């Protein structure tokens, strides 16, 4: 990999480009997967009367493509690391590797094997091999849904695992209400409903930064956000939950799609123009948005819209091309709400390449099979809860004792986005005598991360979080007399 340039200070500092969102391999796919709600481990005894132990399971693995033919694709599962248990129960750990194959000549089928070390709550460790007992596929790629059973004949501890996994690195979102993070000290531990935050427990983009270039006078302390997407170059698209006036842009409506670069990316009337609403000049709001790779914009409105072709409801997924992508009833078709034909609204959405839609509703409901569904839960149109709201915010450890903080915006950082062109480093500025090194770049990636290694071949380790920023300050980078090599990754 060719170095973009090097800087000699007290040591050699070389920056290397990295094109792919994931590490390079022979076939180009190395995706980070995470287990979702619904993943479980079962410890059963087939020859005794003890109760079956079922534990929720979380964890991650890498999926690396190792062979691709016209009939099937074969992957290696690497860095498998799962933990099964709950706050009131001891944990099981599962660590190892495996293989996954998907494809077929007549029907699309899947096969998975895992070779793992399994530790139970009594610290008894055993080597286990698992394989799937059903080959049919219920989820659209790249979501993986597979049930695995152990291959040995130990009937006292007969294990099975259900893996429901998606290729995601972080979930970025905003909440409907603010909260106080106990992991930080007062008075800087308040998280605003206008902040874009991560389920890793940090603020990705503060409300003041989102609003900073909009020309709002007087400067407002905080405005909640209702929709978010990330565009090329780390540009943050968002809407506000109320109308404001800008000295540079004029009136800004609730339904306008804004940019953190200080522009109105799309006016609300432009988003709805293809539907030809009967009433013009009305702000119909903007509650959810995603700008697709072909520049089509999918969105939902805050209020219903009357058109010559009928009513568009607040919970529908619409397109700026004038298409109804999915109605609210279709989104919830695999759920079991008390009133089937009621519109429960749509507050956030993310559409996967395979077409599966993750979303949140404006109104919660009691599902007759799944139980309470809260407005802040992340749901799938396939009929399952992806993440409960309290799990999303758990890394912040909120001090407020509430069941639901709401969910007003959603963005998934995933390896499935097609790799953008290699970014360009615009400057590397050293600061003496403290040795800070400021790195700045331009690129068409949506999300960036800077990594560092002591030798050019690695291993590289992240020194920055996943971010939309186009710069990073490496503190005291030039005080060491050893070489330092940087690699910029983007998604």
Question: How would you describe the overall organization of this protein?
Answer:
The chain is mainly beta and 491 residues long. The protein has three domains: 5-21 and 420-490, Immunoglobulin-like; 30-166, Porin, CATH 2.40.160; 170-413, 4 Propeller (Hemopexin). The protein has four helices and 41 strands. The protein is globular. Mean pLDDT is 91; it is low at 1-13 and 17-26.
Defining traits:
mainly beta; Porin; disordered N terminus; 9-stranded antiparallel β-sheet; 491 residues; Hemopexin; Immunoglobulin-like; single chain; globular; 5-stranded mixed β-sheet; 3 domains; 41 strands
Strand elements, count: 41
**Overall body shape:** globular
Give the helix/strand class.
Answer: mainly beta
Gap from first CA to last CA: 19 Å
Portion of residues in helices? under 10%
Poorly predicted tracts of residues: 1-13, 17-26
Q: Give a quick account of the main beta sheet: strands, pairing sense, barrel closure.
A: 9 strands, antiparallel
Supply the number of structural domains: 3
The count of helical stretches stands at: 4
CATH class of the largest domain: Mainly Beta
- Architecture (CATH level 2) name of the largest domain: 4 Propeller
- Sheet-strand content, in percent, reads over 45%
Mean pLDDT: 91
Q: What is CATH's topology name of the largest domain?
A: Hemopexin
Radius of gyration: 24 Å
């Amino acid at each position: 990999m060719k170095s973009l340039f090097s800087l000699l200070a007290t040591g050699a500092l070389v920056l290397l480009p990295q094109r792919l969102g994931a590490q390079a391999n022979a076939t180009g796919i190395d995706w980070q997967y995470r287990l979702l709600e619904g993943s479980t481990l079962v410890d059963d005894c087939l020859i005794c009367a003890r109760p079956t132990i079922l534990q929720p399971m979380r964890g991650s693995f890498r999926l690396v493509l190792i062979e691709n033919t016209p009939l099937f694709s074969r992957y290696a599962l690497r860095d498998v690391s799962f933990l099964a248990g709950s706050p009131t129960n001891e944990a099981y750990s599962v660590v190892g590797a495996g293989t996954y194959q998907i494809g077929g000549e007549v029907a699309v089928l899947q096969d998975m094997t895992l070779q793992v070390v399994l530790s139970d709550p009594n610290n008894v460790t055993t080597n286990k091999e698992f394989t799937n007992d059903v080959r049919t596929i219920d989820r659209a790629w790249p979501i993986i849904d597979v049930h695995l059973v152990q291959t040995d004949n130990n009937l006292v501890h007969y294990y099975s695992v259900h893996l429901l996994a998606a290729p995601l690195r972080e979930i970025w979102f905003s909440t409907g209400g603010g909260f106080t993070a106990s992991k930080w000290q007062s008075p800087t531990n308040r998280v605003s409903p206008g902040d874009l935050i991560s389920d890793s427990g940090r603020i990705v983009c503060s409300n003041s930064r989102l609003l900073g270039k909009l020309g709002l006078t007087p400067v407002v302390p905080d405005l909640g956000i209702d929709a978010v997407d990330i565009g090329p170059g780390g540009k943050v698209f968002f809407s506000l939950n109320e109308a404001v006036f800008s000295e540079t842009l004029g009136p800004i409506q609730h339904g306008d799609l804004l940019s953190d670069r200080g522009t109105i990316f799309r006016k609300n009337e432009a988003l709805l123009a293809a539907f030809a609403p009967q009433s013009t000049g009305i702000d119909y709001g903007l509650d959810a948005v995603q700008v697709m790779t072909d520049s089509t914009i999918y969105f939902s409105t805050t209020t219903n819209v009357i058109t010559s072709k009928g009513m568009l409801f607040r919970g529908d997924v619409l397109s700026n091309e004038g298409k109804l992508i999915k109605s609210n009833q279709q989104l919830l078709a695999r759920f079991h709400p008390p009133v089937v034909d009621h519109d429960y609204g749509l507050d956030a959405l993310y559409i996967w390449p395979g077409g599966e839609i993750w979303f949140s509703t404006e109104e919660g409901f009691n599902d007759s099979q799944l139980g309470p569904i809260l407005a802040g839960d992340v749901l799938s149109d396939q009929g399952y809860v992806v993440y409960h709201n309290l799990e999303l915010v758990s890394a912040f450890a909120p001090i407020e004792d509430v069941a639901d903080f709401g969910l007003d915006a959603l963005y998934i950082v995933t390896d499935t986005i097609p790799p953008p062109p290699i970014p360009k480093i615009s400057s590397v500025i050293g600061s003496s005598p403290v040795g800070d090194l400021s790195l700045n770049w331009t690129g068409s990636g949506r999300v960036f991360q800077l990594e560092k290694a002591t030798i050019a071949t690695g291993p590289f380790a992240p020194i920055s979080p996943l971010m939309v920023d186009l710069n990073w300050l490496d503190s005291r980078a030039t005080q060491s007399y050893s070489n330092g090599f940087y690699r910029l990754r983007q998604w």
